[in-house]
Amino acid sequence: MTVTAAADTALLAAARRIADEIAAPNAEEVDREARFPAEAIAALREEAALSALVPDDLGGAGASLEAVAGACFELGRRCAATGMVFAMHQIQVACMVDHRGDGAPWFDDYLRELVAEQLLIASITSEVGTGGDMGKSIAAVSTPDADGAASFEKQAPTVSYGPHADAFLTTVRRGPDAEPGDQVAVLTRREQMEMESQGTWDPLGMRGTCSPGFVAKAEFATEQVLPVPFATISAETMTPVSHILWSHVWLGIATDAFDRARAFVKAAAKRKPGEPLPAATRLSELMSELSLLRAEVGLALREYCDLHAGDRARLAEMATILRFNNLKIAASEQAPKVCQEALGVCGIVGYKNDTPFSVGRHLRDAMSARLMVANERIHATDASLLLIAKEV
Ligand SMILES: Cc1cc2nc3c(=O)[nH]c(=O)nc-3n(C[C@H](O)[C@H](O)[C@H](O)COP(=O)(O)OP(=O)(O)OC[C@H]3O[C@@H](n4cnc5c(N)ncnc54)[C@H](O)[C@@H]3O)c2cc1C
Predict the structure, then answer these.
(1) d(CA 370, CA 356)
(2) Which of 57, 117, 227, 308 has its CA 20 to 30 A from that of 200?
(3) How far does the centroid of ligand 1 lie from the alpha carbon of residue 181, in Å?
(4) Would you state the pLDDT for residue 1?
(5) Atom 13 in ligand 1: which residue has the minimum CA distance?
(6) How far apart are CA 226 and CA 305, in angstroms?
(7) Which pLDDT tens digit goes with each residue over 108-150?
(8) Is it true that domain 122-224 has CATH number 1.10.3210.10?
(9) What pLDDT, on a 0 to 100 scale, did the predictor assign at position 103?
(10) Would you kindly state where each structural domain of the chain is located, as residue ranges?
(11) Which residues of the chain have pLDDT under 70?
(12) Cα(10)–Cα(153) distance, rounded to whole angstroms?
């Protein structure tokens, strides 16, 4: 067995166990109290799952993106917030692994530290004033002093697990005079930051992600800036990997809603053997909808992994950007649809919050999907690309 295959098997086994034994029994409380899923994240740390994507020459497991996506699915199926925290962390790690550059020892050292300490990394891309437009920043890196020390201040509307993260990957303009789209990504440790909380986090769903706003101020050394323009990081890694891992979490949510609908229909069939069961037909229709989601998510993962392993430059091509934007739009619309139709199958026992067939949490969690970079914004980007792309 190769290092990657062994790491993948171990990661998936750990994720399944943690999902079933730790995330699932705490999911309702995490949702009700909008609290961080601390016990599931601690268990993932114990399994060294936070460094799954770190290459083995830096001490990590060197697991594949396929296995990490599988873990997001398993966790999302039992507790969407746990799945989403895990997914968001892995996205930041993937960006550092792919774009640390040859001449950036700071990031190699940081990744070794992440392996040893199982550090949790949050993301600050959204900004008050630019909203979900990841490709533009208002905040900027200050002009470095003679020792290479710099700073930034960013108004962040939503920082998932901000109060619990050990470090933050933040997008900012390259310098005070840079254009809004001339961005870099900076990794700063919590102790280098001042995080001034802006309000509370009492949302409809994804409550356990604990994502209030902050004014984030940081002082850091310039070697903590990833040595590649953010536009490249975004095209090759952050955007496609975000869309892939998020959609695996959403597939997990939808799959559990389907499983609950199926359990409801099976229980009804047991109660009235031989009688016609209209809900069974609706369940079959629901399975078709779930299959569409599963197919789209699985195919996109394989396509990305092939491109990443082969001709990575093609990830920045318009056709590829459109492809992974479409994954996000399709999955974020299909997952709530599956949850809503599962509610239709289960009826009132699905609507109540305290039955084995409840799907209210699933529906609320899945509704966040279209907001995690607004679908309308992605459609606007796609509409422009469709006018000029040679092939799609
Ligand atoms: C659960 C959750 C966790 C999150 N965690 C983080 C995090 O950790 N870090 C982070 O940086 N961000 C995070 N975000 C994302 C962040 O909250 C939003 O992307 C950001 O705040 C933008 O807010 P907005 O919804 O107002 O969207 P905006 O993009 O500002 O859009 C506002 C409105 O305008 C519409 N709109 C925008 N552009 C267009 C267009 N071109 N055409 C038509 N309509 C348009 C949108 O549909 C929306 O209705 C998270 C989001 C969610 C839901």
Answers:
(1) 27
(2) 117
(3) 18
(4) 66
(5) 158
(6) 22
(7) 999 999 999 999 999 999 999 998 899 999 999 999 999 999 9
(8) no
(9) 67
(10) 3-119, 122-224, 230-388
(11) 1, 103
(12) 40
Amino acid of residue 34: A
Residue type at 212 in one-letter notation:
P
Q: Both tokens of residue 118?
A: 């199982």
Pairing of strands 149-156, 121-124: unpaired
pLDDT for 102 equals 80
Pocket test for ligand 1, best of 126, 195, 329 (most atoms within 8 A of CB): 126
Query: In the prediction, which pLDDT does 104 show?
Result: 74
Cα distance between residue 212 and residue 95, in whole Å: 23
Complete DSSP assignment for 304-366: HHHHHHS-GGGGGSHHHHHHHHHHHHHHHHHHHHHHHHHHHHHTHHHHSTTSTT--HHHHHHH
Supply φ then ψ for residue 77, to 5 degrees: -65, -30
- pLDDT, position 274: 87
With CA atoms as reference, report the closest residue to 89 among 51, 40, 137. Answer: 51
Residues 6+ apart with CB under 8 A from 349: 264, 355, 357, 358
Residue 199 CB burial class (10 angstroms; 0-12, 13-18, ≥19): exposed
Determine the residue type at 286: L
CATH fold of 3-119, please?
Butyryl-Coa Dehydrogenase, subunit A; domain 1 (1.10.540)
- Please determine whether the domains at 122-224 and 230-388 fall in the same fold group of CATH: no
Q: What is 230-388's CATH number?
A: 1.20.140.10
Mutual angle of helices 3-18 and 65-78, in 10-degree steps: 10
> Residues 43, 24: contact at Cβ < 8 Å?
no
Q: Angle CA(158)–CA(224)–CA(236) in degrees, nearest 5?
A: 70
Separation of CA 242 and ligand 1 centre (Å): 14
